[in-house]
Write a structure and sequence with these properties.
The complex is a heterodimer.
Chain A lengths: L3 E3 L2 E5 L4 E6 L6 E7 L6 E6 L5 E4 L2 E6 L4 E6 L8 E8 L6 E2 L3 E6 L1
Chain B lengths: L4 E3 L2 E4 L5 E6 L6 E8 L3 E9 L2 E5 L6 E5 L5 E5 L8 E8 L11 E2 L3 E5 L1
Parallel strand pairs in B: 2-11
Antiparallel strand pairs in B: 1-3, 3-8, 4-5, 4-9, 5-6, 7-8, 9-10, 9-11
Classes of the chains: A mainly beta, B mainly beta.
Chain lengths: 109, 116
Amino acid sequence: QQPVQSPQAVILREGEDAVINCSSSKALYSVHWYRQKHGEAPVFLMILLKGGEQKGHDKISASFNEKKQQSSLYLTASQLSYSGTYFCGTEAGANNLFFGTGTRLTVIP
Amino acid sequence: KAGVTQTPRYLIKTRGQQVTLSCSPISGHRSVSWYQQTPGQGLQFLFEYFSETQRNKGNFPGRFSGRQFSNSRSEMNVSTLELGDSALYLCASSFPDLATTNEKLFFGSGTQLSVL
């Protein structure tokens, strides 16, 4: 039930864009995105509840393709503060979240 | 408002021992979930409690157990520790409940368990 994230790691220069993908083998009710900086707790970014929904704040946005059972996180014009490990969490109707293995994002000057 | 508090922050145990970890959720949050985090496996779901009842359980052996008290504080226990249990254990709370998992999770900083 654990979703699959790709890529596992990515290195960007400031100002570059990145896409992180999350796919599940099960039909999804919702998708959560979290970011964890080194040595810190994961922090909530956003929830997508409906197929086709897109959300964003600042320059981080996400989409949810219900039919394809996948979600993508878009980071545009990356900043140093975007560095961290990004996790998607998927909920398939069992009232609990299963998280992917994470994508380590490193932004360099 | 205080965040999710986990104690202790670090713990060193030897194989065969047992350990109890504690989690105090944000005031008013009634759902507490526990996750095991290891470098290769990411966040693995252990179990979730709501109003003192375990509602969901992940795919972990029976050595892993938990409970929730009437004040929503939660504990997890691991008996007969194995080397592979070394990990960061995170708890997360949510409000008002996790009936539809539409509520975001607030994570604690975790307890780093090392089994020697």
